[in-house]
Amino acid sequence: MVDFVNKLYKNQALFYKVFLFILTAVLIVYLLPKGGKFKYEIPKGKPWQHESLYAPFDFAILKSDEELKLEREEIAAHNIPYYEYDKTIADRVKNRALEEINEVFSDSILGNYRSIITNFVTSRLDEIYRYGLAQENDRMEPGDLIYLRKGNEAFEIPYKNVFKQGEIRDYINQKIYDANLDRFSNELLEIFFNSVSPNMFYDNEFTERVLQSKLDNISYTRGNIEQGSRVIAKGEVVEGNKYDILRSLKAEYESQVWSKSNYSWIIVGYSALVAMALLMLLLFIQKYRPAIFENNVKVTFIFFNIIFMVMLTTLVVNFDVNYVYVVPLCILPLSLKAFFDARLGMFTHVITVLLLGFIVPNSYEYMFLQIIAGIVTILTISELYKRANLFISVGQITLVYIISYFAFTIIQEGTIEDIKSEVFLTFLLGGLATLFVQPLIYIYEKIFGMVSDMSLLELSDTNSSLLKELSEKAPGTFHHSLNVANLAEAAANEINANAMLVRVGALYHDIGKMENPTYFTENQVSSVNSHDDLAPEESAEIIIDHVIRGIEIARKNNLPDRVIDFIRTHHGTSTVYYFYMKAKEDDDNVNPDDFKYPGPIPFSKETAILMMCDSVEAASKSLKEPTSILIDGFVEKIINKQMEEGQFLNANITFKEIQMIKKILKRKLKNIYHLRVEYPE
């Protein structure tokens, strides 16, 4: 039992990766569509390359989007509007008109013509309100039909039969003339204009409800294909009705309700493919990025990004598949490149795109566009912390999307007339969304505790509060750190290490000397040495202690762990040789371990570079009359001693790279000391 627990403890990192692998695979499979996957791509406008295809079951032919659009427009164009007839208004108008007769005409006239005038007015009102009086409607034509609703009944009548307010004057004048009542023309017109008002009104709500009901009842299919019927023969061009039939077969195949047995097999198939893709990624990281593979946080970060992109794409596809290109998938390689390197970013991007091919329609087109966009992203953005680079790259990514879509449309349709301008807008939105990568990287830094080049650029600012404090309290140490930073950056560039990281590490590696600055020679401005009154052991303890103090100050100021690593390892397990030899003069049996730094030794190229540059720069101050030969000799001596002590055993740095670093340091130091050939007087 104890052995099992010990084995479990020793392999906990491996068990965590297995758990992470299984969890990621399960989540992705859960998000994938669970219908069957149509095994053929439908090459619109091209010959059918496969064997003749026969219908495996009965299915209906789906109408195309264009057909449905035309049908909706046709229904909307021929939809008959509804008008509400208000009988109470017509009754009120008649009563009002009778009152107006008594007010307009004198008693003497009414005495002889009351019956004639009353009959004329009531007859005309009956004709006007037979179908109703309406206001002018610019949308209607005389030949159009309308529905007139009277209570619960609706009557279909021509719109021309309805009186409009603008027609009243001409109608009344004509009727006055026909009835030989010209002498009462003004009075009669006054009666009608004072009493007549519209009594039928356009019922927009009811009309729209009827229209929506018709639109909802549109059939999305036209005709059926029976099981066993030939769908398409080998060599036939996939276009027109053949394309619609194939598209309908694919939709029916993928939307079928599968039996429990079929469903289980689909899950098994998806699981195998997803697991294989994720396994390839893990094996790539293990073989080519072992440092990342050993770090569970970094592996978790990579898998989290994959899950995040799959979830985001699934949400967009479920909402509206037309917006699938709005998802800024290029954020994935950008994020990984910011924290790791371009090769890992590209490999992860390709794996993610392959997984998304199960989710999106037109998977070949989608994968082609996204992989090309990912390659452009990796190639064009060299320094993410430069905002101009990001904007230029986003423009290039958007342009690649547009060109690729344009080319695919021409291949499929054979014309540019079917290009949808709204698709270009989705590409533009996707490109703009890619700009979110900078705040996202900041969020990732806080969540996963990693550091990107953008943060390193901020930390390299010598006007930061911590470095300003160092320059004030320990100016000699600050100057030394600047010199080491310049040397380390040049060395890192020579062997293709992370120059920005090693520069930042060099700037902060000696911040622990702020605690007791005068105990370090570079800060001693007078001939008085603070170590003169101390025992060698005490002096060594103060010197060694600057590493521990540096780590404490760094943590207090929230410096990233990758920067703290430089503070921790820049002396490795080397010996404070001066005080060790001084103590040995007094006691030959002195314990050398009391004069050694606690370590650890450097475990990366960058930390190894800093150790070499720090030792060489500090030792160069002791050179009285530096010459080219002297500099070459002491650089070789210092670095060779570090190699003999095994300081670089854990760093993934080669002997060839160490030799290249020596060469750079020699050249830089010669430039610093301005060595020239001595000319004769």
From TrEMBL:
<protein>
    <submittedName>
        <fullName>HDIG domain-containing protein</fullName>
    </submittedName>
</protein>
<dbReference type="InterPro" id="IPR011624">
    <property type="entry name" value="Metal-dep_PHydrolase_7TM_extra"/>
</dbReference>
<feature type="transmembrane region" description="Helical">
    <location>
        <begin position="297"/>
        <end position="317"/>
    </location>
</feature>
<feature type="domain" description="HD">
    <location>
        <begin position="477"/>
        <end position="590"/>
    </location>
</feature>
<dbReference type="InterPro" id="IPR003607">
    <property type="entry name" value="HD/PDEase_dom"/>
</dbReference>
<feature type="transmembrane region" description="Helical">
    <location>
        <begin position="14"/>
        <end position="32"/>
    </location>
</feature>
<dbReference type="InterPro" id="IPR052722">
    <property type="entry name" value="PgpH_phosphodiesterase"/>
</dbReference>
<dbReference type="Pfam" id="PF01966">
    <property type="entry name" value="HD"/>
</dbReference>
<dbReference type="InterPro" id="IPR011621">
    <property type="entry name" value="Metal-dep_PHydrolase_7TM_intra"/>
</dbReference>
<keyword id="KW-0472">Membrane</keyword>
<feature type="transmembrane region" description="Helical">
    <location>
        <begin position="366"/>
        <end position="385"/>
    </location>
</feature>
<dbReference type="InterPro" id="IPR006674">
    <property type="entry name" value="HD_domain"/>
</dbReference>
<dbReference type="Pfam" id="PF07698">
    <property type="entry name" value="7TM-7TMR_HD"/>
</dbReference>
<feature type="transmembrane region" description="Helical">
    <location>
        <begin position="390"/>
        <end position="411"/>
    </location>
</feature>
<keyword id="KW-1133">Transmembrane helix</keyword>
<feature type="transmembrane region" description="Helical">
    <location>
        <begin position="423"/>
        <end position="444"/>
    </location>
</feature>
<feature type="transmembrane region" description="Helical">
    <location>
        <begin position="263"/>
        <end position="285"/>
    </location>
</feature>
<feature type="transmembrane region" description="Helical">
    <location>
        <begin position="344"/>
        <end position="360"/>
    </location>
</feature>
<dbReference type="Pfam" id="PF07697">
    <property type="entry name" value="7TMR-HDED"/>
</dbReference>
<keyword id="KW-0812">Transmembrane</keyword>
<dbReference type="InterPro" id="IPR006675">
    <property type="entry name" value="HDIG_dom"/>
</dbReference>
